[in-house]
Amino acid sequence: MITRDIKFIHRIIRSNFGKLKFPYKLTFAATYRCNLKCKTCLIWAKTPRSEMGLEEIDSFFKKSNEFSWIDLTGGEIFVRRDIRGIINIILDRCRSLSILHFPTNGFLTDEIVEAARDIKKRGDVTLVITVSVDGPKELHNEMRGGKKDVWDRAVKTFVSLKSLGIKRVYIGYTISQYNIGKIDETFKSIKDVYGKLSYSDMHFNIFHNSEHYLNNASHEFPPENLLKEEILKIKSMKKRPSLMNLIEETYLKTIPRYLDTKKMPVRCQALNSSVFLDPYGDIYPCSIYNRKLANIKEIDYDITKLASMEAAVTLRKEIIEEKCNGCCTFCEVFPSILGSLFRGRFLI
Question: 12, 26, 189, 202: which could form a disulfide with 136 (CB 3.0–4.6 Å)?
């Protein structure tokens, strides 16, 4: 673990000064299927297609295995019956992996807790889990498609994961037009069940449109004036000192600038520090910019071959010159903040 973490830190530092030989972060959407029908995300409405199986996923991670940080996301990853096999492939193949993160809606409590327990037993990586809760019970259930027990299951999953002794289990709260102004009420509702809850147990993100990933390009963005008020409220919350909370504080500082300019206030690291892989093997620079680069079959499952592709070089130049869509989503800003530690634009 120590060797992996040192390598990860070294790669973060290198990302501040130039092109990396291999991106240290992969966002892998293992499925677009979901067992809920959320208002903010229309992944569940995508037309089903044949997803990569274990053999093809293994072929990819056999050749592309130098990631230090993997976000394993969906849809809801636990609707895949072979998700435990995917996790084992990642852990077995990626010998440099330092962080494995997965978000979940928390609906399939037993499956989620069992998988987390097995990962924790291995001790190979730092496991980070985000359980999505976007409001007090009635609001959350309504936002998630109307099932009456969605909130109860999500909170039960959060409490169960905490009981395993996993240190980095968080409530993930995405601010949207549907729940603006409901943070305090949401916090209180969860704390009534889990008395140990603190604001350090909550991570915040803002709603974004994404055509190729979230399938919600037509959705309205939250009112900017209310969103700025919400950010001020979050920044006033007392959180325990930690590197994660420091970076989240920095992320929150980027949001007002993003709202004014619609550009990321730090240099985006897509196609340098990070890359996005969808369930069908298609590679994109990130979760927001709808510019497919290649399918993993076309590069013989070797992500290092992107570096020699003219399309990838051109696309990276577009991103540096801020000709992309622009975003301020936590998943993409996080490595960009880490890649701007020595730049004047870093917001501390």
Answer: 189
How many residues does the structure list for the chain? Answer: 348
Q: What phi and psi values does residue 102 have, to the nearest 5 degrees?
A: -140, 135
Q: Which domain holds residue 124?
A: 2-338
Residue 343 counted as domain residue: no
**Alpha-carbon dihedral sign for residues 167, 191, 175, 232:** negative
Domain assignment of residue 195, yes or no: yes
Radius of gyration of the chain (CA): 19
Is pTM beyond 0.85? Reply is: yes
CA-nearest of 5, 12, 2, 69 to 342 is 12
Q: Rounding to the nearest 10 degrees, give the CA dihedral for residues 209, 214, 220, 224.
A: -50
Q: The CATH number of the domain where 298 resides is what?
A: 3.20.20.70
Burial of 8 (C-beta count, 10 Å sphere; 0-12/13-18/19+): buried
Q: Is 347 contained in some domain?
A: no
Q: What is the pLDDT of residues 26-37, one digit of tens each?
A: 999 999 999 999
| Mean of pLDDT over the chain | 93
SS3 content of the chain, % helix, strand, coil (to 5): 45, 15, 45
**b (16+ CB within 10 A) / e for 156-173:** bbbbbbbeeebeebbbbb
On whether residue 103 sits in a domain, the answer given is yes
Residues 6+ apart with CB under 8 A from 36: 44, 76, 105, 107, 144, 145, 147, 150
Query: What is the H or E stretch that residue 191 is in?
Result: helix 183-191
